TrEMBL record:
Pfam families: Aminotran_1_2 (PF00155). This is Aminotransferase class I/classII large domain-containing protein. Residues 52-359 form the Aminotransferase class I/classII large domain. InterPro entries: Aminotransferase_I/II_large (IPR004839), NHTrfase_class1_PyrdxlP-BS (IPR004838), PyrdxlP-dep_Trfase (IPR015424), PyrdxlP-dep_Trfase_major (IPR015421), PyrdxlP-dep_Trfase_small (IPR015422). GO terms for molecular function: catalytic activity; pyridoxal phosphate binding.
Length: 363
């Protein structure tokens, strides 16, 4: 059994994010109030008060799965499994498709959960990179070279965490063609769809473009509802059944109230309002961050994120990124994510999808 690999970023955040004055580490927008979520219809509250606090449908209540399926071309409720956050979706999906010594190809930089799962499960890891010099576009030549007939899974994050880069249509098609050539699955972490900063159309999903895609979604990032702990998997029906079987070992189900509240949030009546709220936070917050960086000439540089409430900032200081983040936490009660957690020193990830006064004070 390999030595256990902790999830460095989540360990860091779980220990300290509740203890600081200014938490600039989160990758989602400022969380929504329950009263704001339920503001469209007073009957929502009455319905929730009449809820039997039993187990929900283990795979997710029908209304929630219907609302999720409506977001994906060609999906039905049988293609949907509701999970306890995207982390459970990622974990069970990965462990369904792969066994020890299987080959996985992972996009870097990335949310490092799947990399850590691969380390702990004994998968053979290969990586391909987003290139800073190309505006964080993927190195598809590298991807094409490293895949092999042994590659079982290509794991990507689109829009990307931590860079906020969005793959264009040609890049998506190229990744699909490479996967198809070696008969590999694509696991697409798509939790930032809806959190676009520069465009009003939503980032397209990989689901429906290739028959071996598992798409992962979440209420945490683009919806500002991380406390619901609701995620989901979208996949072929047989694959959903296989992942569902593992779901019964990990959490059995998300809660009844979380299912109901997520169903409200994803309803055609409410979802557009929440997505607009998310984009307002992102579009108002980024200029504040940019002005702050500009005021510190020759210290910070960044490729502006296309989506998500985060920026991956390069800094020109003679200090390791973890040491920098530790000093900010201890000396200023400001919390950011060091680039070391993505395997890239001299960077940090910082949130800007926050109330302007809070963001300005934290900076």
């Amino acid at each position: 059994m390999p030595k256990f690999q902790p999830f460095l970023m989540e360990r860091w955040m779980s220990k300290f994010e509740q203890e600081v004055d200014f938490n600039l580490s989160e990758s989602g927008v400022h969380p929504i109030l329950l009263s704001e979520l339920l503001s469209d219809d007073p009957d929502y509250i009455n319905d929730l008060l009449a809820t039997d606090l039993n187990y929900p449908h283990v795979e997710g209540i029908p209304e929630l799965r219907e609302n999720i399926a409506a977001l994906y071309d060609g999906a039905t409720t049988k293609n949907i499994l509701v999970t306890t956050g995207a982390v459970e979706a990622n974990y069970n999906a990965t462990c369904t498709l792969l066994t020890p010594n299987d080959e996985i190809v992972i996009m870097l930089p990335n949310y490092m959960q799947i990399w850590g799962i691969a380390q702990n499960q004994g998968f053979k890891i290969k990586t391909f990179h987003l290139l800073e010099e190309n505006g964080w576009a993927p190195d598809l030549v590298e991807l094409d070279k490293i895949v092999s007939k042994k590659t079982k899974l290509i794991a990507i994050c689109n829009p990307n965490n931590p860079t906020g880069y969005i793959l264009n249509e040609n890049e998506m098609d190229s990744i699909i063609a490479i996967a198809d050539r070696v008969n590999a699955w694509i696991l697409a972490d798509e939790v930032y769809i809806g959190a676009e900063r520069l465009r009003d159309d939503e980032t397209p999903s990989f689901y429906g473009r290739y028959d071996k895609v598992i798409a992962i979604g979440s209420m945490s990032k683009a919806y500002g509802l991380p406390g619901l702990r609701i995620g989901w998997v979208v996949a072929p029906t047989e694959t959903i059944e296989d992942i569902w079987a593992r779901h019964e070992y990990t959490t059995i189900s998300a809660t009844m109230l979380s299912n109901k509240l997520a169903a409200i949030a994803l309803s055609p009546k409410v979802r557009p309002r929440i997505i607009q709220r998310t984009r307002n936070f992102i579009r108002q917050g980024y200029p504040i961050l940019q002005r702050w960086m500009d005021s510190h000439e020759n210290i910070f540089s960044v490729i502006p994120s296309q989506a998500a409430a985060i920026a991956f900032v390069r800094y020109n200081l003679d200090i390791n990124s973890t040491e920098l983040a530790e000093r900010l936490r201890k000396e200023k009660s400001v919390f950011i994510v060091p680039g070391d957690h993505f395997g890239m020193d001299k960077f940090f990830r910082i949130s800007f999808g926050l109330p302007p006064d809070y963001l300005t004070s934290g900076l």
